[in-house]
Amino acid sequence: MLSHSTVQKVLDAGLEAGADFAEIFVEQTDSSELGLTDSKPSTCMVGRLLGAGIRLFYGHEQVYVTTSDLDETSLLEAARGAARSRGGVRAFAAAAAFNKTQWDQIHRYGTPPLQYDRGKKLGWLKLMDQVARARSPWVVQVEPLLMEKTQNVLIANSQGVWAEETRHYVRAMCAVTLEDQGQRQSTHELDGALATSEYFEKVDFAALAHRVVDRASLLIHADYAPAGEMPVIIDSGFGGVIFHEASGHGLETTAVAKNASVFCGKMGEKVASSCVTAIDDGTVAGAWGSIGVDDEGRPTRKTVLIENGVLKSYIVDEMGARKTGYAPTGSGRRQNYKLAPASRMRNTYIAAGTDRLEDMIRDVDYGLYAKVMGGGSVTPGTGEYNFSVQEGYIIRNGKLEKPVKGATLIGRGIETLQKITRVADNLELATGMCGSVSGSIPVTVGQPAITVSSLLVGGRDAAKASGMGA
Amino acid sequence: MIELNFDGIFGRVEEVLKQEASGARVEVELLLERAESLSLSVQKGALEKFDSSRSGCAGFRVLLDGIAGYAWSEDLSESALVATARHALENARFASQGATESDRVELISDGEQVREDDSLFNESLKGLAFEGKKNRALELESLTLQADPRVQSVPYNGYSEVESESRIYTSRGVRRRQRRTSVSGSSYCLAREGESTKMAGDGFFVRDSSKVNIAEVAQEAARRATSRLGATVPATGRYALVIDSKVAGELIGLLAGSFSAKAVFEKNSLLAGKGGEQIASPCLSLTDDPRLPGAAGSRSFDSEGAVARATPLLRDGVLMGYLTDSVHARKMGLPHTASASRGPRSELDISYSNLVVPLGQKSLNELLAGQERVIYITEFKGYHSSYQKGSGDFSFPSEGEIWEKGKRLGPVADFVTSGNLLELLKSIEAVGSRLHRPDGAIRVPDLLVAGAQGGLMVAGR
Lengths: 470, 461
Fold this sequence. Notes:
heterodimer, A: alpha+beta, PmbA/TldD fold, 2 domains, 11 helices, 22% helix, globular, disordered C terminus, B: alpha+beta, 23% helix
């Protein structure tokens, strides 16, 4: 994307005023979105993101400048501007000679999105639309969407790192709205991977459309969830958002280095129930949250965060490493060149246990089975998290009863980790987007089904609340 | 900002597309945005992060026989812009498959001259040297720490300045330009007392750099965090609520998309088919007003270039109408409210500018004192996940204070407030006389919510 010579000059210019580290991140990303509304093409968009971010470190201080102009003069001006803004004593040391970063290319790509047959894509969109509309008379809107992105990045720094990667992302979504007797229900389903358009050939679009309509049909006339504390079984796949929110963000050095995490100073301590082993892994082949190198040019890797309940590692980026002393984990990530990287999750999951979901349900007298989770958020400084349940069921005397909607689960990270009493054998992963200091990035969450002995369920059914003695 | 000859480039793009359209009717709209920004954050009295950016983006909407295709690029060279416009034409061809006569639209004509809104741009940004900006960031942290000894740290803080320019060029001769400046900042602090730890903060937004009041924001950030210390969990049950002005604005923001005629047309609005109906309490009125001087959402023209004007949305609780662009005004036979909204990277949509609820008569204390038992809601969390936009149902993790007979009993936390947004609007019993931020894009005073059922369901102890 840029020559060694230009990059060398830019890094040297950045170091001119005494920075002890300089880095450039150059990006060209082509994106494409195709979608239907009212059974007709509605979203039809392509775009090109182009620019560079130059980052300088002065000890624990960071300067970051960006420009969408990639000619050498503009880049040098940006680098010198960054150096001037900080000022300081000139202690210039030239950037080291570059060594190309090597890593295992485990992700398999085919035709770039803009070169793949659009007719086929239109066919898949229409298939989702037709299948969804045929599935229920209550369907009033179907909005299928295919999103693709090719991100070319070059990362080089004054320590001699030179890394280049092309990442292809594909994602399919089907959103539906149902209406019946004045009641409305909207929901959506997603599938995605680090892959090119050929991935869509393997997606069962009809099944995806069935799933989303069936869930909305189930919920449209469902009762509201009860309110109060109770045992909760959170099923596999997107249920992993509980670990992502309850613990993952608090393990990022972005929070730890500020002493704004409940996990600060707890390395080597028991922070979770013994049945919990949690992993953040950037190396899962083709997974939505995977990468080859991170956005700081370091090969990504698999990081065991918690092993049998004991805290083993934080999620560490370059600046986090400087501030905390822990080694980087290949986890420096950013949405695009406009944002400096930060320590972020990749594919994060609780490892499989040995229990069976049926047995776990059988052992609950009264509680909530959260089959499909929605999103959530956390305050890392206090560990307070929340997330919503898209599809839930009451458990009574060890059996599933009717579905309920409108439940939100709240709690605190470490407390919840310690209340996990059982972990099933049905590990699954699910795709999501995670928003934080360095923007919105693709991540995978995952877990097998888990039992949390007690969580506060926010619902709006007062009768159930008193009935269960809350 | 550097002046580039986009008039000339636009003319050449039009020529290329006309040649490639093989006799079909082609209209072109170009949105151009450029911005320069800086932001600073500090930790423990030292600069932690300084970000500076210069960006630009061009977005084309090309109508091929009235059907739209879109493409955008951050490469603003002439060759890249021509290639981007060709992509938009290709996308319009693709979108034409299955299109019917009623789907065809056209650009608006340049019927009236529109002046740039001078209140949105202020030269004061240039007047403050870098050291002055850095000092503001440092003060934001130090004054927050000094405001209360229980404030332990300010992990998340920032001071930002942005200068931007947006332009519109169309085949119908529309030429628009708007420059904007903004200065914003925030301080989120961690407060501790005994075993209780709380995090909260506050922020500001102004156009004029000389109007920044760092001390006020720091005080409020510290007050918000420390006032939550020692919170207890309220008992599960139904409570009357006084919803803080800031939170009330966030709730109205959740409903804002439903006022869009596009959302109504595409069956994605909670307010579809409710025009002329009483959808809220008679004490609630709401106007979309794009001409408020200097406000965050103000604009003198919309994204199609039409002259912006105020639109009443609720009058005494009755839904007065929807927000429209030229496309949906024509399709649905509605008044054109000039509410088109798009950036270079997005498709044509409809959005509010500034949403304003007129002030009521009662102070916050009067709202709280008038109830036997009430929870004063100071924060709802999880808007993106715990609100169902299809139904209006919500279950928000919440923080607040519990009051009885006009007396504050203490802070409450770790509870969930559940209900339905439309039902909540009908249960508003009074609108307060206080605004959290008088310069924001959504201006809603404190609200008292009780209603026939006696309030909303709270899940706690």
